[in-house]
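Weekly sync, protein design subgroup
Attendees: M.S., D.O., the rotation student, P.L. (late)

Item 1: inverse folding check
M.S. brought a backbone from last month's batch and wanted to see whether the design step gives back something sensible before we order anything. D.O. pointed out we never logged the input encoding, so this time it goes straight into the notes. Structure tokens as presented (293 positions):
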């Protein structure tokens, strides 16, 4: 679907469902992808490029907001079919794309039974990786992409701003956006509330015209950035109270889901329920780390 002028969103059918995860195609002299989806998304992305009439050797960049497999897992699978492309990633994430063994185990621990839906992580040759620093600009010919360090969801997170039209590719730094509802993205193992809030303030100060969520789709304006900051503070407090009452992590997760259900959240949706459960666990890790520090 067309997400913005010259920007197409490919529904990657993550976890076998539409409207959950996507890959953006930026049309310019040098075509770029933002995100790669999982390795299971490879054929959908290639078919979309063919459908748009884009020669595969014209794709020059794959911008990855971070290395979690639902964002980066498909990069290694795509590269053999995109001979001119290089992968842009945060320096802290690059080594995990070259050797993804630790990344895979981290994802397996975080997502538990959902792990087969994340596909595989194919190692990427080091020479095909570009480690992007904060403030790096990429001239695509007619469009410039600005890399923005944006920790909080993960320490290796980048957002990307298309400067001409003010289009901000948020990755997971601004949460998940499902059917008009913001959902927290505070997954294990490295969520940091203070870093997230600082990132959101910085992104807001850039006055983006449109937020382009990996999960899922466009949202006009920048107000959702401040809205998400308020949601994060509320969310962490909710998880803290539940953990204090329950003591045990999984009991606390069930308490959180029960309270959300009573408040009208769509916890009967399996994907949303799993995302919320995982984010509750990530918030608990953050709280314990903060208390220990």
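Designed sequence read out in the meeting:
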């Amino acid at each position: 679907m067309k997400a913005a002028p010259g920007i197409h969103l490919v529904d990657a059918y993550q976890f076998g469902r539409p409207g959950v995860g996507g890959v953006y195609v930026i049309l310019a002299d040098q075509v770029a992808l933002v995100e790669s989806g999982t390795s299971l998304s490879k054929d959908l992305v290639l078919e979309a490029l063919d459908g748009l009439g884009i020669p595969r050797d014209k794709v020059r960049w794959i911008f990855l907001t971070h290395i979690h497999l639902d964002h980066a897992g498909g990069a290694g699978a795509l590269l053999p079919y995109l001979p001119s492309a290089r992968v842009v990633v945060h320096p802290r994430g690059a080594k995990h794309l070259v050797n993804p063994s630790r990344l895979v185990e981290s994802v397996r621990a975080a997502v538990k039974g959902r792990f087969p839906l994340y596909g595989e992580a194919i190692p990427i040759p080091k020479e095909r990786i570009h480690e992007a620093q904060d403030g790096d600009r990429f001239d695509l010919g007619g469009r410039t992409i600005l890399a923005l360090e944006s920790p909080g969801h993960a320490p290796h997170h980048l957002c990307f701003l298309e400067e001409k039209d003010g289009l901000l590719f948020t990755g997971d730094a601004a949460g998940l956006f499902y059917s008009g509802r913001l959902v927290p993205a505070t997954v294990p193992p490295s969520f940091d509330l203070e870093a997230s809030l600082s990132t959101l303030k910085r992104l807001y100060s850039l006055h983006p015209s449109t937020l382009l969520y990996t999960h899922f789709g466009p949202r006009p304006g920048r107000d959702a950035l401040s809205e998400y900051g308020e949601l994060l503070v509320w969310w962490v407090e909710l998880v803290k109270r539940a953990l204090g009452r329950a003591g045990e992590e999984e009991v606390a997760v069930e308490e959180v889901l029960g309270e959300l259900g009573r408040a009208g959240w769509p916890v009967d949706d399996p994907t949303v329920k799993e995302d919320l459960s995982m984010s509750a666990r990530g918030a608990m890790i953050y709280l314990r780390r903060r208390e220990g520090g």
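Discussion: The chain has a mean pLDDT of 94. The CA atoms of residues 76 and 122 lie 5 Å apart.
Action: P.L. to compare against the previous round before Friday.
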